[in-house]
Write a structure and sequence with these properties.
445 residues, alpha+beta, Rossmann fold, 27% strand, globular
Length: 445
């Protein structure tokens, strides 16, 4: 059977998905158009921004608004798509998966109702409570901002302020860390959010475990640690993610095998409670002295975590998609025993006052042993330039975190510093050791 795969989205995560599909046996022989023994496959892509890395891989790249179901379905039908892979969260919230299915096209991504596990944080917490899913922190939801402020005054301890809807990873404020209680109340009053969630602040180390879900079954990937804060030493405002790392095993250096297994058991309970979920279920956990607690769920690959996970996936990703489409469980996933370090280069001033227009000096060819993933860039006749969002990521893959970090840094040296900001501390030995020491302290070791 001929497979025409439509990739929806144009960021770094989607470039990683395109690379994983490029490595598929059916797409590998000559660019994206290839013959295999059992059929033929092509990759098509659509996004609001043109990603030059994806455009290099795909047979065709269409610029369109991916939250417009009519436009996406029309393009999917034009290219005779047999499978669609939805990368970002906004198209999921717009119901793109539902519309594609109505048109007879399988979408690897949850329908709008199931995507609420990410797109509506109030729903997410109520869902966890209703289904007795472990790892849920104490919380309350509010549509009255004055009542929320009163709750902060009355609560004995620190709270996390979460807008109920999507904010690109930048809406959360943590009392006792990023803001004081008074600043938190001011943030709530000055915002235009119509619903917020207030929940207990969890102390520990953040980890992400991503699950490939289809037909009531799932397979999990190695744990990853993202770094949301803009500046080195975990300082500054939250971002969409400045970089991440994984180890050459399922666990991170500060985790035990039991920690990972407990996180997987929480994912299992969540998959069991979701009726017809398909796609990626991303569990972001706080590893506390009492084990993993759920910070949030996302309904798609993480960005940057996809750039740690997909380069070491040895199972054919197209086989994962076709199994899901054909009603089968995901195949047993195999991952290389390699560590990864991903570092994002973002425009100077990001995220509060980003300055666009710096020329990107590194290319896929000049990145050496590192993998280059474009995110939000502007391709012009004379080169590629930054926009006001995250620009590109460089990923090292090696036997150890230290070696992978060095590969990423060597590529960043080619990229240079002009007009860019990078968190160079991600994956460095001293930062990883601080994570280990922190968890040892929390465990009383």
């Amino acid at each position: 059977m001929r497979e025409n795969v439509l990739l929806i989205g144009g960021g770094g995560r989607e470039h990683a998905i395109a690379r994983a599909l490029e490595d598929s046996e059916a797409l590998r022989a000559s660019g994206s158009r290839a013959q295999s023994d059992d059929g033929e496959a092509d990759l098509y892509a659509c996004a609001g921004n043109r990603n030059p890395g994806i455009a290099r891989i795909a047979s065709e790249f269409e610029t369109l608004e991916t939250t417009n179901p009519k436009a996406v379905v029309e393009y999917a039908e034009e290219v005779d798509a047999t499978i669609a892979v939805i990368g970002p969260e906004a198209p999921l919230e717009a119901g793109i998966a539902d519309e594609l299915e109505d048109a007879g096209i399988y979408a690897f991504g949850p329908k709008k109702e199931d995507a609420r596990i990410e797109t509506d944080k109030a729903f997410q917490r109520r869902f966890m409570r209703e289904h007795d899913i472990p790892g849920c922190p104490a919380f309350e939801t509010f549509d009255d901002m004055d009542a929320a402020c009163e709750y902060i005054d009355e609560y004995d301890g620190d709270l996390v302020i979460k807008p109920a809807g999507l904010t690109g990873g930048k809406g959360v404020k943590v009392i006792g860390d990023q803001v004081t209680a008074e600043e938190g109340k001011e943030y709530i009053r000055d915002s235009d959010y119509d619903r917020i969630v207030l929940e207990e602040r969890l102390i520990g180390e953040e980890v992400t475990v991503q699950a490939f879900v289809a037909n009531g079954a799932f397979e999990t990937a190695p744990a990853v640690q993202d770094h949301k804060r803009a500046y080195e030493g975990d300082e500054g405002p939250n971002t969409g993610g400045m970089g991440s790392y994984s180890d050459a095993s399922d666990e991170l250096p500060f985790m035990t095998e039991a920690d990972y297994d407990e996180a997987v058991s929480i994912i299992e309970a969540t998959v069991d409670a979701l009726d017809d979920y398909r796609g990626i279920l991303y569990g972001q956990f706080m590893l506390t002295s009492e084990g993993p607690k759920v910070i949030e769920f996302n309904a798609r690959f993480g960005d940057p975590e996809a750039m740690n996970t997909l380069p070491v996936l040895e199972t054919d990703f197209l086989d994962v998609l076709t199994a899901a489409r054909d009603g089968d469980a995901p195949p047993a996933l195999e991952f290389a025993d390699k560590a990864t370090v991903c570092k994002y280069a973002v425009p100077e001033g990001y995220p509060t006052n980003p300055e666009a227009g710096a020329k990107v000096q590194v290319s896929e060819e000049s990145a050496g042993d590192a993998l280059l993933y474009y995110a939000s860039v502007d391709e012009r006749d004379d080169g590629i330039y930054t926009t006001t969002s995250r620009s590109f990521a460089l990923v090292g893959v090696a036997d150890s975190i230290g070696e992978a970090e060095e590969i990423a840094e060597n590529a960043l040296a080619v990229a240079g510093e002009e007009g860019l900001h990078v968190r160079h501390d991600i994956g460095k030995a001293d930062l990883v050791q601080r994570r280990i020491d922190h968890m040892n302290e929390l465990r009383g070791e």
